[in-house]
Amino acid sequence: MRDFSSVQRVVVKIGTNVLRSANGGIDTTYIRDLAEQVCSLVNAGKQVVVVTSGAIGMGAAELGIGGRIDTVKLRQACAAVGQPILMNTYKEAFSRHNTSVAQVLLTREVLDNRTSYLNLRNAIETLLSLGVVPVVNENDCVSTAEIGTTFGDNDRLSALVASKVDAEVLILLSDIDALYDSDPRTTSGAHPIRTVPQITDEVLAAAGSPGTRFGRGGMQSKLAAALVAENAGCPMLLAHGREPHVLSRLLAGEEIGTVFLAKRRLGNRVRWILNSEPQGRVTIDEGALAAIRNKNSLLPTGIVRVEGVFPAGAVVNLNNCGKIVTSMNSHELAALAGKHSREIEKLLGGGRKDFIARPEDMVFFDEDS
């Protein structure tokens, strides 16, 4: 159940607090040790993608900024200063083992746009085929969302990357050594949970509160990552990043940390729709909802309300039960609401599709496919 020695593709995420030294800067000795571990896996024929945090902390240390960094502008500035320092440290550490690294900076918009998402997937596939280790981080400097709310200290980002590159296992290296049945910081009798077959309400209740000076993680964001990985059929391993030889020990099945199992694997397009941030909402009537649940296309006659401004091809919420990729923009949908399909040409002109979304463009939250 815990033996992952045969896997070929691994995503490894390193948390902010694991990377930091005692003075708040970057721990170059640790990164060198981590690079040695990763290169050992690469030399054994595995493909490894690294997802790293730490740019904001590194930038703050470089600028001599103390205390909690609360404003978005200051966090963006620290990220801009810290990112090249962080990447240079990775480059130096991996070059000791004759291994190249590539910087990959992502925003939520890149992952939500189908074209840029596919381009990202192809780029990472090419890098891995060349024996390069991609080092992925959120592009905090230009992110349009408040830093830390988009990906949750990169926990969710690492799961999204694992999903998009079809990784066989996701490893989260944190200053948290496992999931516990209660908060070990406040409960002396808290016990580690070594295996989580499925994330239930009881598991979610065991999560503590997030928040550190530089990090925005915590067990809540790690469980959110596990849910994303689960839909990709990708088990997730959580362990303390300072455990000696932690990567090889985890993959060999040693009972350290916590393993979150994955019992299902959704299709790539379904995963993309589920994980994309919705750009609006379309509300339809009960008759239309019943029809599309029976694998029929969504037609304009069933539309009751359109909320938000979004382009054609956007992912939007459907009522409170799912998401769709709409073939029309928000203005066109509003104009067609309640109309018959034969009125599309009269209202929008010729050559238009006669449906809002096909069955393959819809995902319901209560279905497994």
List the keywords:
alpha/beta; Carbamate kinase; 15 strands; globular; five-stranded mixed beta sheet; 369 residues; 14 helices
Map the helices and strands.
Blueprint: E1 9-14, H1 16-19, H2 28-43, E2 47-52, H3 55-63, H4 72-95, E3 101-106, H5 108-112, H6 114-129, E4 133-138, H7 155-164, E5 169-174, E6 179-180, E7 192-193, E8 195-196, H8 201-205, H9 219-231, E9 236-240, H10 246-251, E10 258-260, H11 268-275, E11 281-284, H12 286-293, E12 303-307, E13 315-318, E14 322-325, H13 330-336, H14 344-348, E15 362-364
Parallel strand pairs: 1-2, 1-5, 2-4, 3-4, 5-9, 8-10, 11-13
Antiparallel strand pairs: 6-7, 9-10, 11-12, 13-14, 14-15
Helix pairs in contact: 2-4, 3-4, 7-9
Could you characterize the architecture of this molecule?
- The protein has about 375 residues and is of the alpha/beta class.
- Helices cover about 35% and strands about 15% of the residues.
- Strands 3-4-2-1-5-9-10-8 form an eight-stranded mixed sheet, sandwiched between helices. A five-stranded mixed sheet has the order 12-11-13-14-15, with helices on both faces.
- Strand 13 (about 315-320) and strand 14 form a beta hairpin.
- Helix 7 (about 155-165) runs parallel beside helix 9 (about 220-230).
- It starts with 8 loop residues before the first strand and ends in a 5-residue tail after the last strand.
- Mean pLDDT is about 85; it is low at about 145-150 and about 210-215.
